[in-house]
C-alpha cells in the first residue's frame, strides 16, 4: 500500500514521470516500481509508456479546476470530513485513500484505492439544510443515469444502490458560523475500487472496465454549485426521492438506539422519516436515531 501511495503522490501534480526519476524519488528499484504500477493499473488509469509512467488526466483529480471552488487533492488522509472543517468556504477535498473514513453514526467508512472520496464545504440557507440529503440522493441518481445509463435506487435513508448493492453513500454535517449555516458534505462513490463488504458494488464491476473518475467529480461539483437553486422546489425533490426509494413495500430489519425489530416499510412522510408497520401498528423511523436498516426481501 505504501509504495502505491508514494507513486500516486509523485504522479498527481504532473501526471507523468520517468521511471528513473521515480526510482530516485521513491527509493524503489525499477522492478519494484513496475510491479507496483501493475497493481495500480487494476484500479487507476495508470500505465507505463516506454520509460514514462502516465496517469490519464481524466482520472486524476489534480487536473480539475472547478470554477468558484478551491480544490485540494491528497493521496492519503485520516478523514476528508474532519479535515474539511479547517478549510474555507467553497472548498473541496478529494482523497485517494482514507485510513479513518467516517460514515453515519460514527461508523467507519472503507475508502480503498480507486474510489472517489470527497468532502465539500459551502454555505446554505438554514431553512433548506434538512432537504440536502434528499437532493444529494437525487443528484447521484441523475449522475449515474446521465453518464453511465444506470438505473440506480435509494435505500433509505440515502444509500445509493444498483441492483440492491450499495455503490455510493454520504454524510452531511452542519454548523453555524455567526448567522451563516455551513454544511460539510461527504460523498463516497465506489468507482474502480474493489469494495470488500458484502452487498456492495462498484462502477468497474457494473460496466466491466475502468472508469475515468473526473467526469463524475466534475458533474457532482456542478450540481452542488447549484444546490441552493435545486433545493427551492422541495415538493418535486420529495416526489423524485419517493419514486426512487427501493425500500418501500419491503420487509426490513431495523436497529435503532433503543430496539431491534423486523417490519414492513410502507411510506415516508414530508420530513423523510420512514414509516414502518409491525403487527398492524405503524411507527416512524428517523435517520438520526436509526442505526441500521437492511432489506429482507
UniProtKB/TrEMBL annotation:
Q: Any keyword Ligase?
A: yes
What Enzyme Commission number(s) appear in the record? 6.3.4.15
- The organism is Staphylothermus marinus
Keywords in UniProt for this one? Ligase
Matching entries from PANTHER family are given as:
BIOTIN PROTEIN LIGASE, BIOTIN--PROTEIN LIGASE
Gene3D superfamilies for this protein: Bira Bifunctional Protein, Domain 2
Question: Which Pfam families does the entry mention?
Answer: BPL_C, BPL_LplA_LipB
User: Cellular component GO terms, alphabetically?
Assistant: cytoplasm
Q: Listed GO molecular functions?
A: biotin--[biotin carboxyl-carrier protein] ligase activity
Q: What is this protein called?
A: Biotin--[acetyl-CoA-carboxylase] ligase
**Can the keyword Ion transport be found in this entry's annotation?**
no
Q: Which residues form the BPL/LPL catalytic domain?
A: 58-232
Q: Which NCBIfam families match?
A: birA_ligase
Amino acid at each position: 500500500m505504501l509504495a502505491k501511495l508514494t507513486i500516486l503522490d509523485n504522479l498527481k501534480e504532473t501526471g507523468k514521470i520517468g521511471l528513473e526519476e521515480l526510482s530516485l524519488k521513491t527509493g524503489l528499484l525499477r522492478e519494484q516500481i513496475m510491479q507496483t504500477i501493475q497493481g495500480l493499473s487494476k484500479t487507476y488509469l495508470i500505465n507505463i509508456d516506454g520509460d514514462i509512467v502516465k496517469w490519464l488526466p481524466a482520472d486524476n483529480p489534480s487536473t480539475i479546476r472547478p470554477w468558484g471552488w478551491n480544490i485540494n487533492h491528497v493521496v492519503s488522509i485520516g478523514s476528508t470530513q474532519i479535515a474539511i472543517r479547517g478549510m474555507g468556504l467553497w472548498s473541496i477535498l478529494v482523497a485517494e485513500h482514507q485510513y479513518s473514513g467516517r460514515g453515519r453514526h460514527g461508523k467507519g467508512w472503507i475508502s480503498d484505492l480507486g474510489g472517489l472520496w470527497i468532502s465539500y464545504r459551502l454555505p446554505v440557507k438554514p431553512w433548506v439544510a434538512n432537504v440536502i440529503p434528499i437532493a444529494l440522493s437525487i443528484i447521484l441518481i441523475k449522475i449515474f443515469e446521465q453518464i453511465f445509463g444506470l438505473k440506480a435506487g435509494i435505500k433509505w435513508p440515502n444509500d445509493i444502490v444498483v441492483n440492491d448493492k450499495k455503490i455510493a453513500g454520504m454524510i452531511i454535517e452542519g454548523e453555524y458560523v455567526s448567522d451563516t449555516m455551513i454544511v460539510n458534505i461527504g460523498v463516497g462513490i465506489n468507482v474502480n475500487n474493489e469494495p470488500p463488504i458484502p452487498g456492495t458494488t462498484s462502477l468497474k464491476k457494473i460496466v466491466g472496465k475502468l472508469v475515468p473518475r473526473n467526469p463524475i467529480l466534475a458533474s457532482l461539483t456542478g450540481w452542488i454549485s447549484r444546490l441552493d437553486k435545486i433545493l427551492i422546489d422541495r415538493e418535486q425533490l420529495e416526489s423524485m426521492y419517493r419514486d426512487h426509494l427501493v425500500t418501500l413495500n419491503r420487509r426490513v430489519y431495523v436497529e435503532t438506539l433503543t430496539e431491534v425489530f423486523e417490519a414492513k416499510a410502507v411510506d415516508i412522510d414530508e420530513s423523510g422519516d420512514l414509516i414502518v408497520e409491525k403487527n398492524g401498528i405503524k411507527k416512524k423511523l428517523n435517520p438520526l436515531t436509526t442505526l441500521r436498516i437492511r432489506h429482507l426481501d
